[in-house]
Amino acid sequence: MCVAIAAFAQSLAGFGFSLLSVPMMVLFLSPRDAVVVSVLVASVSTTTQAVADRRFTEWKTVRRLSLMSYAGMPFGLFVFNVVSERNLRFGLGAVVIVATVLIVRNFQIPENARRYDWVLGFVSGVLNTSTSTNGPPLVFLLKSRSMDAATFRATLNTVFSIANIGALILFLGSGKMTEENLVGAAFALPALALTLRIGYAMRKRVNEEAFTRLVVGLMLLSGASVLISAVTQ
Questions:
Q1: Any residues with CB less than 8 A from the CB of 79 and at least 6 apart, and which?
Q2: Do 169 and 210 meet the contact criterion of CB atoms below 8 Å apart?
Q3: Among 27, 28, 4, 26, which Cα is nearest to 16's?
Q4: 40-75 burial string, b = 16+ CB within 10 Å, else e?
Q5: In angstroms, rounded to a whole number, what is the distance separating the alpha carbons of residues 154 and 150?
Q6: Please, where are the H alpha helices in 83-134?
Q7: In this structure, what DSSP letter does residue 206 have?
Q8: I want to staple 176 with a disulfide (CB 3.0 to 4.6 A). Which of 26, 57, 167, 171 is the partner?
């Protein structure tokens, strides 16, 4: 169920898999196991969508964000190993809420201000290996440039797909990936395949205005859920 809900949201919005799946998974798994399983399943989801939507991808942006994401991943793995689970949740929730507020206020980043790509790409890499939720900085960046829905989804999923490869290598090399994680991810794949097909079929019903509301709603829901879990667990 966790994977089905998260995959459906991602197929419509272009992001949201880890934002939704990790808070739900921690009800059944430890936060660290939830992060690893989420990255495993998300790798399949994002790669599938990146290939399917590749004609819409903005490749220059992908290259910049992917490079800086890889630069940030080792720092994120360090955070993953030394920072408490509660503090990880507080940090993630704060990042999501701040990014959402800026999107709602229609904060704009000029196309030629490439320094934001370097900074937010790096932050995304840190979040990827520390929380498996690397989307908020990238969602904020691309929405602030008023990308259309198709380009937004394709560009995001391509960056996610490339970043997830690096995250999985780091998890494997550091001994954080277990056989149980692999089995759990494998069991989730049928639900992933079904909900991706449903989400793709529903895309034509989502216009640009509804798409923006969906993005904002997902960000608010995810940020609130992570903050609540940090307080209650």
A1: 88, 126, 129, 130
A2: no
A3: 4
A4: bbbbbbbbbbbeebeebbbeebbebbbebbbebbee
A5: 6
A6: 85-104, 115-131
A7: -
A8: 171
CA dist 72 to 55, 59, 150, 218, Å? Answer: 28, 20, 27, 24
In our burial notation (b when 16+ CB lie closer than 10 A, e otherwise), range 148-174 reads ebebbbbbbbbbbbbbbebbbebbeee
pTM summary value: 0.76
Spatial separation of the C-alpha atoms in residues 6 and 173, rounded to whole Å: 27
- Name the residue ranges covered by the structural domains of the chain: 2-232
Q: Which residues contact 85 (CB under 8 A, 6 or more apart)?
A: 30, 31, 32
